[in-house]
Amino acid sequence: MLEHNALVVVADGHHAILYRNTAKQGIELTEVQRLTPSNLSDEGEGHAPHERSPKDEDEATFAKQLAERLNGIVLRHKADEVAIVADPSTLGTLRKHYHKELEGKLKKELAKDLTKSSAAEVAKALS
């Protein structure tokens, strides 16, 4: 079970939704931010190897930049617990870029694309 105020990230290769668990017990998610390549790319350049298609490269770059954002959140002590829900490809790329501190705060990973799901559906999948 996720603790109160845990950070929940729902992502695919194109965008991510950050939620906080607002329930004192159980899971009730409140959206706090939506991230896209345009509002992540201003934090630093991350490029994937060039043997991929442009679409695959864009998705890998987004996942790397998302991991850097999550690492920063954890390193600034803005999250004590983190759950990540992402499609398998994005999750694989994210894992390669986790900081040790993020790995320590990671309570749950779910290899599933739920970016078009409601907060309630994401909460149910994490339960």
What's the gist of this structure?
This protein is α/β, with parallel strands linked by helices.
Notes on the structure:
The protein has 127 residues and is of the alpha/beta class. It contains 5 helices and 5 strands, in the order βββααβααβα. The protein has helices spanning 37-40, 54-75, 88-96, 100-105, 119-126; strands at residues 7-11, 16-21, 29-35, 82-86, 106-111. It has a 5-stranded mixed β-sheet with strand order 3-2-1-4-5. A hairpin with a 4-residue loop joins β1 and β2 (16-21).
> Shape, please?
globular
Average pLDDT, rounded to a whole number, is 89
Low-pLDDT runs of 5+ residues are 43-50
- In which range does the helix fraction lie? 25-40%
Rg (CA only): 14 Å
- Terminal CA distance reads 7 Å
Can you count the beta strands? 5
Spatial order of the strands in the main sheet?
3-2-1-4-5
Number of helices: 5
User: How much β-strand is present in the residues?
Assistant: 15-25%
Main β-sheet, in a few words?
Answer: 5 strands, mixed
Q: Indicate the structural class.
A: alpha/beta
Oligomer: single chain
> What sequence of helices (H) and strands (E) makes up the elements?
EEEHHEHHEH
